[in-house]
């Protein structure tokens, strides 16, 4: 596709369940970022990858959150034992450059809206 | 104190007006400054980026960075109803990999 694709578009789950959010970046893009955006707020950094290597996961709130990008393309953000406070829009972004490069440009997907009941 | 401060608005202007959007920041290590536009229910879309201080112009949009004041601005000339969106500033250190976003300013341009 032409842009960053995320699925599902909406996810409603019960507290305590695990969820997996998928991101398909723009073809050929090197770096992939996960952000979380609460209503009325700007995106908050979670983690990012260069190719398949996770470079920085300092933004993940706790050890219930994990991410992988095993083949350097599609990435999955997994949240275990979800809690109501995890409810937010989860956005993926990709960039043609390696993370940390000057003039890096992020291309965002439309996000997955997660609601934990 | 947040890394990046941005007035959430909302801001409402008549068509044709000049719009000024601003952010302040506290981290003097920031070197790379961006403005994103986000339409309702869409992901942020990169509008402009600047490196270090100075001005950059692209059509009706002008981005300014004043590092001495830790203050950045986005000006929109001849604003159009299609400019109605939320505008997010973002910034990062020179070799950083984390982009720090403002909360976004909601803009409505009235025909």
Please trace the helix and strand order of chain B, writing H or E for each element.
Answer: EEEEEEEEEEE
Q: What radius of gyration of chain A results from the CA coordinates?
A: 13 Å
Low-confidence stretches of chain B: none
Number of helices of chain A: 0
Tell me about the largest β-sheet of chain A.
Answer: 7 strands, mixed
What is the CA-CA span between the terminal residues of chain A? Answer: 32 Å
Proportion of residues in helical segments of chain B: under 10%
- How far from one another are the termini of chain B? 37 Å
Strand content of chain A: over 45%
Mean pLDDT of chain A: 91
Tell the overall outline of chain A. Answer: globular
Tally of DSSP helical segments of chain B: 0
Catalogue the unreliable spans of chain A: none
The secondary-structure class of chain A comes to: mainly beta
The rough form of chain B would be described as: globular
Category by helix and strand content of chain B: mainly beta
């Amino acid at each position: 596709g032409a842009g960053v694709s995320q699925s599902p578009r909406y996810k409603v789950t019960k507290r305590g369940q695990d969820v997996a959010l998928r991101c398909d970046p723009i073809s050929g893009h090197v770096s992939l970022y996960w952000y979380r955006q609460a209503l009325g707020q700007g995106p908050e950094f979670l983690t990012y990858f260069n190719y398949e290597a996770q470079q920085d996961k300092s933004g993940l709130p706790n050890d219930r959150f994990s991410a992988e990008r095993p083949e350097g393309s599609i990435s999955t953000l997994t949240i275990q034992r979800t809690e109501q406070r995890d409810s937010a829009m989860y956005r993926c972004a990709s960039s043609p450059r390696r993370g940390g490069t000057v003039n890096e440009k992020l291309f965002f997907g439309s996000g997955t809206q997660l609601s934990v009941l | 104190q947040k890394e990046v401060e941005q007035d959430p608005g909302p801001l409402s202007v008549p068509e044709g007006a000049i719009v000024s959007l601003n952010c302040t920041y506290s981290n003097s290590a920031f070197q790379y400054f961006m403005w994103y536009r986000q339409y309702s229910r869409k992901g942020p879309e990169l509008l402009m980026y600047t490196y270090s201080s100075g001005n950059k112009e692209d059509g009706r949009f002008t981005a300014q960075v004043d590092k001495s004041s830790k203050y950045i601005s986005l000006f929109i000339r001849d604003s159009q109803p299609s400019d109605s969106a939320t505008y997010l500033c973002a910034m990062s250190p020179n070799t950083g990999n984390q982009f720090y976003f403002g909360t976004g300013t909601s803009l409505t341009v009235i025909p």
